[in-house]
Amino acid sequence: MQMKICLGGYVLLLAMATQIRPQSPPASFPKTLIEDLVLANHILDNEGMLDGYGHVSVRSPTNPSHYFLARAGAPALVTLADITEYDLDSIAVSGSAVTGYIERFIHGEIYKRRPDVMAVVHCHCSEVIPFADTSVPLRPMHHMGNFIGAGVPVFEIRKAGGETDMLIRTPALGRALAETLEGKSAVLMRGHGATIVAPSLHLVVGRAYYLNLNARLQLQAIQLGGKVTYLDSEESKKAATDYERSWDAWKSKVIRK
Ligand code: MN
Q1: Which member of 35, 47, 85, 103 is catalytic?
Q2: Could you state, in order of their start, the residue ranges of all structural domains in the chain?
Q3: What span, in angstroms and rounded, lies between the C-alpha atoms of 125 and 82?
Q4: Which member of 78, 100, 120, 207 has the lowest number of beta carbons within 10 Å of its beta carbon?
């Protein structure tokens, strides 16, 4: 008897869970872009920029006051049904936002301040941490990291919020981060990670990858002990790339899995 009640309860819970979590995003969502956003989550995980944490978003092409971001969860497991539409105050307007990422204000506040930004990655990519935690600035090591030539500022959360748990939990902290980023493509976050922006989803994934790689190469070059020659500002400007071939390669790896 007790067993039957338990089983009945389980079936009911399962039915409720199915109702709460739809299997596909609302029909109004731009399908190709949302599929690319899911793919971006998987690529960033597969290439080691995101682990269980970190997130990637894209601005709505039809409504610049909205953006799309997965609900809270590991990027490797993100599906179409997890994608949620937010306004720039990072309040969910539709989709499956049962639980949003705590740090979603990173995205909303950057989109508010930077009309040129169409995509944002927030990562805890480990190679950048030495440059976030010391006075050594990240500098462009190679042509694929050319965007670093414009400078990569470091966000000091104590200046904005005093003693915190290091997370961007409020719109005010998001605004402070967006102000530190200013006109640049990436900002390092002391004791935390980095946030990268770009005018497209493919570009932001490429920049996240090459930011992390550049940090690794720079640390290796410094450790060699000789003089390090970085790209100069003219080379950095001329070496602009769209990372499209990298995107194709990364995509083929996650699709083969
Ligand atoms: Mn974080």
Answers
A1: 103
A2: 2-256
A3: 23
A4: 100
